[in-house]
Design brief:
It holds the Pfam family Glyco_hydro_3. InterPro entries: GH (IPR017853), Glyco_hydro_3_C_sf (IPR036881), Glyco_hydro_3_N (IPR001764), Glyco_hydro_3_N_sf (IPR036962), NagZ_Beta-hexosaminidase (IPR050226). The protein has about 600 residues and is an alpha/beta fold. The protein is about 40% helix and about 10% strand. The chain is built from 21 helices and 14 strands. It has an 8-stranded parallel sheet with strand order 7-6-5-4-3-2-1-8. Strands 9-14-13-12-10-11 form a 6-stranded mixed sheet, sandwiched between helices. The longest helix has 17 residues.
Length: about 600
Amino acid sequence: MNTGRIGRWSITALVFMVLISLPSAVPLNIRSPLSQVDATWVNRTLSRMSLDEKVGQMFMVGFQTDRWGSSSGFSAHARELIRRHHVGGVILFSRNLQNPRQVGELTNQLQQLAVASEPHVPLLIAVDQEGGDITRVDGATVFPGNMAQGATVDPEIAYVSAKTVGRELRAMGINLNLAPVLDVNKNPANPVIGVRSFGENPRMVAAMGTSAIRGYHEGEVLTAVKHFPGHGDTHVDSHIGLPSVTHDRKRLDAVELVPFRESIRGGADMIMTAHITFPAIDSTPDTPVTLSRRALTGLLREELGFQGVIITDDMEMGAIAKRFGTPQAAVRAIQAGADMVLVAHSLSAQRSAIAAVKQAVQSGKISKERIDESVRRILRLKAERLGKHAVAKQVYAYPDEAERMVGTPQAARQAEAVAARAVTLVQDPDRRLPLRPEWLPRVLVVSPEKPVALSRRLSDQGFRVEALGVDADPAVAERKRAVEKAREADAVIVGLTGAVLHPQQAALVHQLEETGKPVVALGLNTPYDVAVLPRKTTYLALYGSNPVSLDAGVKALTGQIPLRGRLPVSIPERYPVGAGIHIERMARPGR
């Protein structure tokens, strides 16, 4: 018997599952040997599949958890999608996930149903575990997000972070991370990418992204890079509307496409499409890349040479659902060259999209050959990528081992080290740092985000702290109250998030500076906010408000760590890419 940490099943064992009833939970001690899964298996499996099964394999779906359902989160919604519609992949959200053990139990039940049902093919089980603010699994190690990693200017950071995240995901039975984000963030007003991007230098984004892919692979997890051809220079959120990137092809080749080209060379398994129009790629009015044959087949397949699986972004997003309707868009995406269609939420949308694709094949709008092309790519992805750790060779998790392997102290130390490397001192002309309780004991914390969490960390350092939460655009009365409290404090720490888009945050900082008390601003999101602050305000970019970033911020404030981060984006009319004040050891403020 194989005593590896993740169960392995032979194809014979998978077929045998059809003959037994589905238990309520997967036994935790089943470990079976695996026969070779290769091109022969791919061909044989494809030849035996019905049209319904082939179409189902081309869908990745999310599901709702029954209110009074299984303790693992398994539900009737998931059961129907797998057993009746034969879906090839499942995406998990926070609504499905509680802790590592529960995640392992859930993924096992999903996989057991898949291998017990036609066509007896294991699932791709995916999650968005990007790091920073985009994390789904409670109890897993949360690394700083991409922009924080970009501030380290060290691709090895991206590699180590991804490897650790990958190992934790695979221990829970998650075999695909919808990451890394390869968008080049060129627009300070971008409402949806921002800190999810490594930065604005396409070569740096490419280097960090390919290192992350290597790390995920060594962590035994597949990757889906996104959002092709690039969501970094938009000011519209595609969850709501249809953005457009109007740059010419020369600019796209020099910026947006650079990381995707490199990711293809670096072994990207899947590429996720963007619901964005690119007139330089396809001039057809109101045609997003997801529905464009020129973009998916012409550019991505034929010109860039990508041979892996093309997956759409969620087809229930506003950019698609409101304009085209999810069912018709699913048909058009496959006609354009997509292999997998992501429908992440509604069972009715999932049923109708699957039915629409099947009808399109039956009517001749989509050829059977076109379906076979995509299903073959999906089966090869499951059978061949990751070698001995391929999805079809390493199917199950062991929840007891997941509990032991996920969120370890060692991984936490790695995340803390990344956060500490990322903190960037952008400006401190009056040398207000470091803050120490023996010099400035009374501190006011004002922030629209995490004021209490930040205050607790400062209290642990010996400060007498008062926390004041404010709105993203603090009203006159809120600002007045903050100023009154600032006069009673020795120093003021202001958390900022989106001050470029919420001008009253900047107004608050200006008013606090007028009190004459030392003001230190912490960037809890993108560092663009420094552009609207007084030049004398000390500004530290943390690139997030997750626990390790807040910990690193407090250590930076109090002079406990060296400051080595560099801006991964430029600040218009203020600072270039790479700016940052480096301090190995802080002296008393003003000295």
